[in-house]
Amino acid sequence: MSTSTLKLRDFGAGVRLALTILAITVLGGSAASGWYLRMHHDNRDERPGFTLDDIRAHYHGIQSKAPMLLALERGHPEGLDPAASKALTDWLTGSRIREDYDNFDLGDFAPETIIAENCIDCHSADASGSGTDPALSLRYFDDVMKVSVSREINPVDIKLLAASLHAHTLGLAALTLITVFLLALTRLPRPITGLIATATALGLFVDLAAWLVTRNWEPGVYLIVGGGILYQAGMILSLLIVIVDLWLPKRGKPISPSIS
């Protein structure tokens, strides 16, 4: 008794149509998950725009001093009146950064006044002072805020992380198993399907495992991003291959089981 190898193209039109619709649905879900990820983590680092720091803040947390405070601690700008430096330091380490920026009651020690008198010459688009840095503008309120806020962001609660990891592991692993199985039924050479399947599985494993690793090891955020990109690329490529293979014409005689 011998049995020929079954391929995706050997299924009936109804099954192939159903598999195509499901594959397209999963592709749409991948796009939606990326959209949700952007919306969910956007501003997680307390700054506008979706960046690597948003992911870092979620899984590891961020503790960083304001760039302006660091500059003051290393004696920049040179020659700044000690009283003015103390006023800026108190402002940057206080809880009224926005409110007291141009507080009239502070008089000459209002942050806006100190910055205008000591920083604008070097830090503005039309800077003319020595050692200018026009790329770091301090002329406007929004520019100043970007370098005035220290951040202390705690990572997501470990219980929520565990619950999310549990759901993602089971759901994505099951979806990936089905996708890899369908990929294996295509007419691509086995070495190619094996490489794509392995890369996809590895990407998922690295991404999910790094959720826990990153909590205590900040560079793990790069594993999350790298693993996620590898996984998504592998899934998208696999599903596209499956869809194309479902509708490519058969080569030669149709394959069907035979008993001899």
The oligomerization state is single chain
Percentage of residues in helical conformation: 55-70%
How many domains is the backbone divided into? 2
Using the CA coordinates, give the radius of gyration.
Answer: 28 Å
How many separate helices? 9
**Quantity of strands, as a count:** 2
How much beta, percentage-wise?
under 5%
* End-to-end Cα distance: 5 Å
- Report the order of strands and helices: HHEHHHHEHHH
Dominant shape: elongated
Major sheet details: 2 strands, antiparallel
Uncertain spans, ≥5 residues at pLDDT below 50?
254-260
- Average pLDDT confidence is 89
Question: Which structural class fits the helix and strand makeup?
Answer: mainly alpha
Q: Could you describe the 3D structure shown?
A:
The chain is an all-alpha fold and 260 residues long. It has two domains: 8-60 and 155-247, no CATH class; 66-149, no CATH class. It contains nine helices and two strands. The protein has a two-stranded antiparallel ribbon. α7 packs parallel to α9 (220-247). The radius of gyration is 28 Å and the shape is elongated. The model is unreliable at 254-260 (pLDDT under 50).
Can you describe this structure in just a few lines?
The chain has 260 residues and is mainly α. It has 2 domains: 8-60 and 155-247, no CATH class; 66-149, no CATH class.
Strands, helices and their partners?
Blueprint: H1 13-41, H2 52-59, E1 62-64, H3 67-73, H4 82-92, H5 111-118, H6 141-146, E2 151-153, H7 158-184, H8 190-216, H9 220-247
Antiparallel strand pairs: 1-2
